[in-house]
AraC family transcriptional activator of pobA
Amino acid sequence: MKGKVKRIVSEFNSELKLQGFKAFQIEEEDADIRVYSRKEFYKICLTTGRSKIHYSDKSFEQEGTILFFGNPHIPYSWESISRSYVGYAILFSEEFFKNSERSESLQQSSFFKIGGTPVLKITTEQREFLIKIFQKMIAEQESGYVYKDELIRNYISLIIHESLKLEPSENYEKNKNASLRLTSVFIELLERQFPIETVNTPLKLKNAQHYARHLHVHVNSLNRAVKETTGKSTTAHITERIVTEAKALLLHTDWSISEIAYSLGYEYPTYFNNFFKKQTGTNPKTFRLGDV
């Protein structure tokens, strides 16, 4: 049985990487074999059942039908609680979706942002509409239609835009000034540093100077743009994101605190302990044990 599962996983990943996308139906018996690299693929998932979603350092317990948006740069995990659990999902790479003229939707949508809305409650009517879209994608990916990639990108865009209708309009107001553009690039670069998936690939960009150098701007220009646009300093954004990742690693991995410290760019665990306690009011060990 293990050999069969490994073979299915291998075939699944090979097809996913080759096409840049994979749509499929979620069934109870094969839920555990959908193994893929989260750092490479976005995920949109329509499910009916009871589940608990761990998204970054937060948890959402949901019952009924939901639409979930997974960002490859934000750590998340999924627990199925109910015995009956069905749905549909599509995985797709940023490179695949960027071929669309409407690829800006990923960056504009709050669904894929760390402070956004990764889970939407779906009505019965919306569920039936979305199921038809997922079924069309599944059927289309098996077809020989020469333009099926573009058609599937259109289906993804349709799901995103149908979901945007459920959000307040202020969530996607645009202001195309220079400060906003620079801030958007900084935030995107910041998110691309996460999640930390192995101890052997520690965080490289750790402060405002590192990000300014990477973006080829003066650190004062970056600080001014970020402060003007968000009301928070560049350092505050970096610090908050590192704390969020630290909490997620403490809660959802079995790495030692020393390994977590190293993965986040701290040469000595003491430095990480001091940083974490200053930002959260507690030390990493106490947080991990839940004694807070």
